[in-house]
Amino acid sequence: MSKPNFAPLKLFITGPTYIRDDVKEAGSLPEFGHRDAENDLRFGPIRENLKKLGSTGGKYEVALLLGSGSTAMEASVRSLVAEGESILNVSVGAFGDMYYNLAAHNGKNAENLKFDYGKAIDLNVLEDKIKAMKPDLVSFTHNETSTGVVNDMKPVCELIRKHGAMPIVDGVSIFGGADIDLENSGAAMYSTATQKALGLPAGFGIAFISEEAEAKAEKVTGKGHHHDLTKHLGRARKNQTLTTPNCTLANQMCVQLDRIVNEEGIENRFARHLEMRGMVEQWADTLAGFEMFAPEGYRSPTVSTVLCPEGVTVAQLKKGVKEAMRAEGYLMDPGYGKLNTAMESEGRRLVFRVGHMGDITPEMLTEYLGKLEIELKKL
Hints:
Strand content: 15-25%
Low-confidence stretches: none
Order of helices and strands: EHHEHEHEHEEEHEEEHHHHEEHEHEH
CATH superfamily of the largest domain: Type I PLP-dependent aspartate aminotransferase-like (Major domain)
CATH topology of the largest domain: Aspartate Aminotransferase, domain 2
Protein backbone atom coordinates (compact mmCIF):
# COMPACT_ATOMS: atom_id res chain seq x y z
CA MET A 1 0.00 0.00 0.00
CA SER A 2 1.48 3.34 -1.03
CA LYS A 3 1.79 6.23 1.40
CA PRO A 4 -0.48 9.26 0.85
CA ASN A 5 1.26 12.27 -0.64
CA PHE A 6 0.65 14.94 1.98
CA ALA A 7 2.29 18.34 1.53
CA PRO A 8 4.84 19.20 4.28
CA LEU A 9 3.54 22.71 4.97
CA LYS A 10 4.96 25.12 7.55
CA LEU A 11 1.97 26.16 9.66
CA PHE A 12 1.43 29.83 10.46
CA ILE A 13 -2.22 29.36 11.33
CA THR A 14 -3.71 29.64 14.81
CA GLY A 15 -3.95 25.93 15.52
CA PRO A 16 -3.06 23.22 15.06
CA THR A 17 0.41 24.68 15.23
CA TYR A 18 3.96 23.81 14.20
CA ILE A 19 5.31 20.75 16.07
CA ARG A 20 9.03 20.26 16.60
CA ASP A 21 10.68 17.09 15.32
CA ASP A 22 11.66 15.97 18.84
CA VAL A 23 8.03 16.26 19.94
CA LYS A 24 6.95 14.18 16.93
CA GLU A 25 9.58 11.59 17.81
CA ALA A 26 8.27 11.42 21.38
CA GLY A 27 5.10 10.00 19.90
CA SER A 28 6.99 6.76 19.28
CA LEU A 29 7.78 6.24 22.97
CA PRO A 30 6.23 3.11 24.55
CA GLU A 31 2.50 2.87 25.13
CA PHE A 32 1.46 2.37 28.76
CA GLY A 33 -1.46 1.39 30.93
CA HIS A 34 -3.41 4.40 32.17
CA ARG A 35 -4.08 2.73 35.54
CA ASP A 36 -0.53 1.44 35.88
CA ALA A 37 2.46 2.94 37.70
CA GLU A 38 3.87 3.89 34.26
CA ASN A 39 1.04 6.41 34.02
CA ASP A 40 2.48 8.39 36.95
CA LEU A 41 5.78 8.76 35.09
CA ARG A 42 3.96 10.77 32.41
CA PHE A 43 1.06 12.53 34.08
CA GLY A 44 2.87 13.42 37.30
CA PRO A 45 5.41 15.68 35.51
CA ILE A 46 2.75 16.87 33.05
CA ARG A 47 0.52 18.19 35.82
CA GLU A 48 3.36 19.77 37.77
CA ASN A 49 4.76 21.55 34.72
CA LEU A 50 1.31 22.80 33.71
CA LYS A 51 0.95 24.34 37.16
CA LYS A 52 4.34 26.04 36.77
CA LEU A 53 3.40 27.40 33.33
CA GLY A 54 0.15 28.76 34.74
CA SER A 55 1.73 30.19 37.91
CA THR A 56 -1.03 28.61 39.96
CA GLY A 57 0.62 29.14 43.35
CA GLY A 58 -0.98 25.93 44.58
CA LYS A 59 -4.48 27.41 44.25
CA TYR A 60 -5.67 25.27 41.32
CA GLU A 61 -5.92 21.59 40.59
CA VAL A 62 -5.29 20.64 36.97
CA ALA A 63 -7.25 17.97 35.11
CA LEU A 64 -6.86 16.70 31.55
CA LEU A 65 -10.07 15.99 29.63
CA LEU A 66 -10.02 13.97 26.43
CA GLY A 67 -11.05 16.30 23.63
CA SER A 68 -10.17 19.95 23.13
CA GLY A 69 -10.43 23.29 24.86
CA SER A 70 -14.14 23.42 24.16
CA THR A 71 -14.48 20.15 26.11
CA ALA A 72 -13.11 21.84 29.22
CA MET A 73 -15.26 24.91 28.56
CA GLU A 74 -18.39 22.78 28.27
CA ALA A 75 -17.45 21.02 31.50
CA SER A 76 -17.26 24.41 33.21
CA VAL A 77 -20.80 25.20 32.07
CA ARG A 78 -22.30 21.82 32.94
CA SER A 79 -20.54 21.53 36.30
CA LEU A 80 -20.77 25.11 37.56
CA VAL A 81 -24.13 26.49 36.38
CA ALA A 82 -26.78 25.01 38.67
CA GLU A 83 -30.47 24.63 37.88
CA GLY A 84 -32.19 28.00 38.21
CA GLU A 85 -28.94 29.96 37.85
CA SER A 86 -27.95 32.25 35.00
CA ILE A 87 -24.72 32.80 33.11
CA LEU A 88 -23.58 35.88 31.20
CA ASN A 89 -21.20 35.13 28.35
CA VAL A 90 -19.01 38.06 27.30
CA SER A 91 -17.87 37.91 23.68
CA VAL A 92 -15.25 39.85 21.75
CA GLY A 93 -15.37 37.43 18.82
CA ALA A 94 -16.28 34.01 17.50
CA PHE A 95 -14.94 32.01 20.43
CA GLY A 96 -16.71 34.18 22.96
CA ASP A 97 -19.86 33.39 20.99
CA MET A 98 -18.98 29.71 21.19
CA TYR A 99 -18.88 29.86 25.01
CA TYR A 100 -22.39 31.30 24.88
CA ASN A 101 -23.51 28.57 22.48
CA LEU A 102 -22.14 25.87 24.78
CA ALA A 103 -24.22 27.27 27.62
CA ALA A 104 -27.34 27.69 25.51
CA HIS A 105 -27.09 24.24 23.95
CA ASN A 106 -26.89 22.74 27.43
CA GLY A 107 -30.15 24.42 28.36
CA LYS A 108 -28.63 27.01 30.67
CA ASN A 109 -30.22 30.40 31.25
CA ALA A 110 -27.62 32.30 29.23
CA GLU A 111 -27.21 35.72 27.68
CA ASN A 112 -24.46 36.95 25.37
CA LEU A 113 -22.89 40.41 25.70
CA LYS A 114 -21.15 41.13 22.39
CA PHE A 115 -18.50 43.73 21.68
CA ASP A 116 -17.59 44.88 18.18
CA TYR A 117 -15.00 43.02 16.13
CA GLY A 118 -11.49 43.96 17.21
CA LYS A 119 -12.56 45.54 20.50
CA ALA A 120 -11.67 44.40 24.01
CA ILE A 121 -14.12 44.17 26.92
CA ASP A 122 -15.35 47.59 28.03
CA LEU A 123 -15.58 47.30 31.82
CA ASN A 124 -18.21 50.03 32.10
CA VAL A 125 -20.50 48.30 29.62
CA LEU A 126 -19.91 44.97 31.34
CA GLU A 127 -20.72 46.40 34.74
CA ASP A 128 -23.98 47.89 33.50
CA LYS A 129 -24.98 44.50 32.06
CA ILE A 130 -24.08 42.64 35.25
CA LYS A 131 -26.13 45.10 37.33
CA ALA A 132 -29.12 44.64 35.06
CA MET A 133 -28.91 40.85 34.69
CA LYS A 134 -27.42 39.81 38.05
CA PRO A 135 -25.87 36.58 36.68
CA ASP A 136 -24.49 33.84 38.91
CA LEU A 137 -21.54 33.19 36.57
CA VAL A 138 -19.77 35.17 33.87
CA SER A 139 -17.62 33.59 31.16
CA PHE A 140 -15.22 35.45 28.90
CA THR A 141 -12.35 34.85 26.51
CA HIS A 142 -8.86 35.73 27.68
CA ASN A 143 -7.37 35.67 24.17
CA GLU A 144 -9.80 35.89 21.24
CA THR A 145 -8.30 33.83 18.43
CA SER A 146 -10.58 35.22 15.73
CA THR A 147 -9.63 38.89 16.29
CA GLY A 148 -6.22 38.80 17.98
CA VAL A 149 -7.58 40.71 20.99
CA VAL A 150 -6.36 39.87 24.48
CA ASN A 151 -8.42 40.93 27.49
CA ASP A 152 -6.80 41.88 30.79
CA MET A 153 -8.03 38.96 32.86
CA LYS A 154 -7.49 40.28 36.39
CA PRO A 155 -9.61 43.48 36.26
CA VAL A 156 -12.39 41.65 34.40
CA CYS A 157 -12.47 38.96 37.12
CA GLU A 158 -12.34 41.62 39.83
CA LEU A 159 -15.37 43.36 38.36
CA ILE A 160 -17.31 40.10 38.07
CA ARG A 161 -16.54 39.19 41.68
CA LYS A 162 -17.44 42.69 42.85
CA HIS A 163 -21.02 41.85 41.91
CA GLY A 164 -21.02 38.39 43.46
CA ALA A 165 -20.65 36.31 40.30
CA MET A 166 -18.16 33.55 39.51
CA PRO A 167 -15.71 34.17 36.61
CA ILE A 168 -14.83 31.30 34.26
CA VAL A 169 -12.27 31.90 31.54
CA ASP A 170 -11.40 30.54 28.10
CA GLY A 171 -7.61 30.66 27.75
CA VAL A 172 -7.26 28.21 24.86
CA SER A 173 -5.02 30.24 22.54
CA ILE A 174 -2.77 32.00 25.04
CA PHE A 175 -1.76 29.41 27.66
CA GLY A 176 1.90 28.53 27.22
CA GLY A 177 2.60 31.77 25.34
CA ALA A 178 2.18 34.36 28.07
CA ASP A 179 2.33 34.80 31.84
CA ILE A 180 -1.30 34.36 32.90
CA ASP A 181 -0.58 34.53 36.67
CA LEU A 182 -3.50 32.32 37.60
CA GLU A 183 -2.73 32.62 41.30
CA ASN A 184 -3.71 36.29 41.28
CA SER A 185 -6.18 36.26 38.38
CA GLY A 186 -9.42 35.76 40.25
CA ALA A 187 -10.64 33.09 37.82
CA ALA A 188 -12.67 30.26 39.34
CA MET A 189 -11.84 27.98 36.41
CA TYR A 190 -9.51 28.43 33.45
CA SER A 191 -9.77 26.25 30.34
CA THR A 192 -7.11 25.64 27.70
CA ALA A 193 -5.83 22.96 25.32
CA THR A 194 -2.76 21.28 23.87
CA GLN A 195 -2.79 22.32 20.20
CA LYS A 196 -2.12 26.05 20.46
CA ALA A 197 0.74 27.77 22.31
CA LEU A 198 1.94 24.53 23.90
CA GLY A 199 3.09 23.32 20.47
CA LEU A 200 1.45 19.91 20.72
CA PRO A 201 -1.12 17.93 18.73
CA ALA A 202 -4.78 18.32 19.68
CA GLY A 203 -6.29 15.80 22.06
CA PHE A 204 -6.61 17.17 25.60
CA GLY A 205 -8.66 19.95 27.10
CA ILE A 206 -6.92 21.29 30.19
CA ALA A 207 -8.90 22.55 33.17
CA PHE A 208 -7.45 24.60 36.02
CA ILE A 209 -10.02 24.25 38.79
CA SER A 210 -10.07 26.28 42.02
CA GLU A 211 -11.30 24.97 45.37
CA GLU A 212 -14.25 27.33 44.98
CA ALA A 213 -15.20 25.78 41.65
CA GLU A 214 -14.78 22.26 43.01
CA ALA A 215 -17.08 23.02 45.94
CA LYS A 216 -19.67 24.43 43.56
CA ALA A 217 -19.43 21.45 41.20
CA GLU A 218 -20.12 19.04 44.05
CA LYS A 219 -23.55 20.64 44.49
CA VAL A 220 -24.57 20.90 40.82
CA THR A 221 -26.65 18.05 39.40
CA GLY A 222 -27.07 16.80 35.84
CA LYS A 223 -23.40 17.18 34.93
CA GLY A 224 -23.25 14.06 32.81
CA HIS A 225 -20.17 11.85 33.00
CA HIS A 226 -17.36 13.33 30.91
CA HIS A 227 -18.34 16.89 31.88
CA ASP A 228 -18.39 16.23 35.62
CA LEU A 229 -15.46 18.11 37.12
CA THR A 230 -15.70 16.21 40.41
CA LYS A 231 -15.10 12.92 38.58
CA HIS A 232 -12.14 14.41 36.72
CA LEU A 233 -10.63 15.78 39.92
CA GLY A 234 -10.90 12.42 41.63
CA ARG A 235 -8.72 10.90 38.93
CA ALA A 236 -6.47 13.94 38.48
CA ARG A 237 -5.30 13.70 42.09
CA LYS A 238 -4.06 10.22 41.21
CA ASN A 239 -2.28 11.65 38.13
CA GLN A 240 -4.86 9.95 35.95
CA THR A 241 -7.52 10.85 33.42
CA LEU A 242 -11.19 9.97 33.82
CA THR A 243 -11.23 7.83 30.68
CA THR A 244 -8.52 6.19 28.58
CA PRO A 245 -6.05 8.88 27.46
CA ASN A 246 -4.25 9.34 24.18
CA CYS A 247 -1.02 7.66 25.27
CA THR A 248 0.90 8.95 22.25
CA LEU A 249 -0.03 12.54 23.09
CA ALA A 250 0.76 11.97 26.78
CA ASN A 251 4.30 10.92 25.86
CA GLN A 252 4.68 13.98 23.64
CA MET A 253 3.22 16.25 26.29
CA CYS A 254 5.58 14.96 28.97
CA VAL A 255 8.63 15.58 26.76
CA GLN A 256 7.44 18.98 25.49
CA LEU A 257 6.51 20.42 28.89
CA ASP A 258 9.83 19.31 30.33
CA ARG A 259 11.62 21.07 27.47
CA ILE A 260 9.56 24.25 27.94
CA VAL A 261 10.11 24.44 31.69
CA ASN A 262 13.63 23.09 32.05
CA GLU A 263 15.33 23.80 28.70
CA GLU A 264 13.87 26.87 27.04
CA GLY A 265 12.65 28.34 30.32
CA ILE A 266 9.20 29.76 30.98
CA GLU A 267 10.23 33.43 31.00
CA ASN A 268 12.24 33.00 27.81
CA ARG A 269 9.25 31.41 26.11
CA PHE A 270 6.96 34.26 27.06
CA ALA A 271 9.55 36.84 25.96
CA ARG A 272 9.88 35.11 22.58
CA HIS A 273 6.15 35.42 21.98
CA LEU A 274 6.21 39.14 22.82
CA GLU A 275 9.16 39.62 20.49
CA MET A 276 7.25 38.01 17.62
CA ARG A 277 4.20 40.16 18.25
CA GLY A 278 6.47 43.19 17.97
CA MET A 279 7.91 41.86 14.73
CA VAL A 280 4.45 41.64 13.15
CA GLU A 281 3.58 45.14 14.37
CA GLN A 282 6.73 46.59 12.82
CA TRP A 283 6.19 44.62 9.61
CA ALA A 284 2.57 45.76 9.25
CA ASP A 285 3.66 49.38 9.69
CA THR A 286 5.85 49.10 6.59
CA LEU A 287 3.04 47.81 4.31
CA ALA A 288 1.09 50.52 2.55
CA GLY A 289 -2.62 50.22 3.29
CA PHE A 290 -2.22 47.59 6.00
CA GLU A 291 -2.39 48.10 9.77
CA MET A 292 -2.89 46.14 12.98
CA PHE A 293 -6.51 45.27 13.70
CA ALA A 294 -6.51 44.93 17.50
CA PRO A 295 -5.95 48.17 19.42
CA GLU A 296 -2.57 48.82 21.00
CA GLY A 297 -2.45 47.50 24.54
CA TYR A 298 -4.87 44.67 23.68
CA ARG A 299 -2.85 42.79 21.07
CA SER A 300 -2.37 39.09 21.54
CA PRO A 301 1.13 37.70 22.11
CA THR A 302 0.22 34.53 20.19
CA VAL A 303 -1.83 35.62 17.16
CA SER A 304 -1.75 38.91 15.26
CA THR A 305 -4.54 40.20 13.04
CA VAL A 306 -3.73 42.62 10.24
CA LEU A 307 -6.30 44.87 8.58
CA CYS A 308 -6.22 44.85 4.78
CA PRO A 309 -6.68 47.84 2.43
CA GLU A 310 -10.13 48.78 1.16
CA GLY A 311 -11.31 46.55 -1.67
CA VAL A 312 -9.48 43.35 -0.71
CA THR A 313 -11.95 40.45 -0.87
CA VAL A 314 -12.35 37.14 0.91
CA ALA A 315 -11.74 35.38 -2.41
CA GLN A 316 -8.44 37.22 -2.92
CA LEU A 317 -7.20 36.20 0.52
CA LYS A 318 -8.38 32.58 0.30
CA LYS A 319 -7.77 31.72 -3.34
CA GLY A 320 -5.01 34.17 -4.12
CA VAL A 321 -2.68 34.78 -1.18
CA LYS A 322 -3.33 31.54 0.69
CA GLU A 323 -2.78 29.32 -2.35
CA ALA A 324 0.29 31.28 -3.44
CA MET A 325 1.77 30.74 0.02
CA ARG A 326 0.86 27.05 -0.15
CA ALA A 327 2.95 26.83 -3.31
CA GLU A 328 5.84 28.29 -1.30
CA GLY A 329 5.42 25.59 1.37
CA TYR A 330 3.40 27.56 3.94
CA LEU A 331 -0.13 27.33 5.30
CA MET A 332 -1.29 30.94 5.59
CA ASP A 333 -4.30 32.08 7.61
CA PRO A 334 -6.59 34.26 5.45
CA GLY A 335 -8.62 35.34 8.48
CA TYR A 336 -11.34 33.68 10.52
CA GLY A 337 -13.98 32.69 7.97
CA LYS A 338 -17.17 33.82 9.74
CA LEU A 339 -15.55 37.09 10.83
CA ASN A 340 -14.35 38.07 7.35
CA THR A 341 -17.61 37.00 5.72
CA ALA A 342 -19.54 39.18 8.15
CA MET A 343 -17.18 42.12 7.71
CA GLU A 344 -17.29 41.82 3.92
CA SER A 345 -21.11 41.85 3.98
CA GLU A 346 -20.99 45.02 6.08
CA GLY A 347 -18.59 46.73 3.70
CA ARG A 348 -15.76 46.68 6.23
CA ARG A 349 -12.08 46.03 5.63
CA LEU A 350 -10.99 42.41 6.04
CA VAL A 351 -8.27 40.90 8.20
CA PHE A 352 -5.80 38.06 7.95
CA ARG A 353 -4.09 36.35 10.85
CA VAL A 354 -0.48 35.49 11.62
CA GLY A 355 -0.12 32.69 14.14
CA HIS A 356 3.17 33.03 16.03
CA MET A 357 2.58 30.73 18.94
CA GLY A 358 4.12 27.62 20.40
CA ASP A 359 7.53 26.78 18.97
CA ILE A 360 7.57 29.23 16.07
CA THR A 361 10.82 31.19 16.29
CA PRO A 362 11.62 34.77 15.27
CA GLU A 363 13.81 33.39 12.47
CA MET A 364 10.92 31.31 11.11
CA LEU A 365 8.59 34.28 11.38
CA THR A 366 11.01 36.58 9.53
CA GLU A 367 11.19 34.15 6.62
CA TYR A 368 7.42 33.76 6.52
CA LEU A 369 6.66 37.49 6.65
CA GLY A 370 9.12 38.11 3.82
CA LYS A 371 7.32 35.62 1.55
CA LEU A 372 3.90 36.87 2.64
CA GLU A 373 4.79 40.47 1.90
CA ILE A 374 5.56 39.61 -1.72
CA GLU A 375 2.11 38.09 -2.18
CA LEU A 376 0.27 40.86 -0.36
CA LYS A 377 1.84 43.53 -2.52
CA LYS A 378 0.28 41.82 -5.53
CA LEU A 379 -3.13 42.80 -4.16
